[in-house]
Amino acid sequence: NKTKKPQKTHPEPPQKQIPKTPHYCTSSPPITDRPGGERDQKHHPKNKNQTPPKPPQKKMSTTTTTPKQPKFHVIGAGLSRGGTRSLKTALEILYPEGKCYHGFEILEHGKSHNEFWDQTHHAQLTAEQTRQWFESRGYVCGVDCPFVYHYRKWLDVFPDAKVVLNVRDAKKWYKSVNSTLIPLYKDRFRFPTNVLSPLDPKMIDLAFCNVDMEPQEGKGVFGSVLAGEDAAVEFYNEWVEAVKKNVPKERLLVFNVEEGWEPLCKFLDVPVPDQPFPNVNDGAEMRKIVYTMRAVAWGVVVGLPLLTAAGLYAYFKK
Fold first, then answer.
1. Is the CB of residue 293 less than 8 Å from the CB of residue 107?
2. How far is CA 313 from the centre of its chain?
């Protein structure tokens, strides 16, 4: 019998032992041992049907925030026919987030605005109600009559606003008012335009608002101009001096639109626009309003009776 030789056995190579990474944070177990951990859910069947915890939901705020209304920037204190239309256009370029109030707004909105001015004239509104009225309609500036008649009140209503007193030569102002606003003023009492009151109230509102909302000192704009050039020039100069006296110097700019952007932008602390200063003369527009009112009035007074007579003649002739 052959004896089997013992087979040589090769010793297995020693396995490298991977050192365990020490956990430096002894207060919390490794992720595999944490409840809800990834490996924990794989190796523990009892956690298979468990849904991961939902993250805490943020509580919804119950307070409603109202959108911030635009700030009122400029109070105009210069009388009509003193560059107010050019100043309005310039301010809307400097403050594009809002509008600038002007007397022509009454033509667009009619009695709703006239009622506000009537309440303002008779001190029936609080400062908050007045602020809300302007800001809710997007006005951030105001010029021209009847706005300027209440400039002293606006100093308290808009304490952060600055005041711009637009001025011009007093004699030129008299001639401009005499050729534009005075005919509108006279026509509201004169036939045939006085018949338009129930037919076109917006036109009449403009005339009434500019006259009836005047401050009561002296003769006012229309009374002074009707009294002649000397009385009108005296009234205009007194108005300018009164504004200078009543408005704090740090809040006031005496401004002629012929001066352009530089003094206005420096006073308001805004950049100078890269465009010419607007030069808007609405004298022709005012005269057009007067002529239109007269033409419509004569059409109503003469045209309607003629049409009625022609209709009756045709009816009875049959």
1. no
2. 56
Question: Rounded CA gap, 239 and 92, in Å?
Answer: 25
**What pLDDT, on a 0 to 100 scale, did the predictor assign at position 242?**
93
* Res 66 pLDDT > 50: no
Contact 113, 106 (CB under 8 A): yes
How do residues 102-136 score in pLDDT, each as one tens digit? 988 887 787 778 888 888 888 899 999 999 999 99
Judging by beta carbons within 10 Å of its beta carbon (0-12, 13-18, 19+), is residue 27 exposed, middle or buried? exposed
Give the percent of the chain with pLDDT over 90: 41
Instruction: Select from 150, 162, 165 the least CA-distant residue to 243.
Output: 165
Is beta strand 139-142 parallel, antiparallel or unpaired with respect to 74-76?
parallel
Both structure tokens of 68: 């911030």
* Ordered DSSP codes for 238-288: HHHHHHHHHS-GGGEEEE-GGG-HHHHHHHHT-PPPSSPPP----HHHHHH
CB 157 within 8 A of CB 127: yes
Q: Are strands 162-166 and 139-142 parallel, antiparallel or unpaired?
A: unpaired
Distances (CA, A) of 291 to 16, 174, 200, 208: 109, 21, 14, 18
Burial 171-184 (b: 16+ CB within 10 A, else e): eebbebbbebbebb
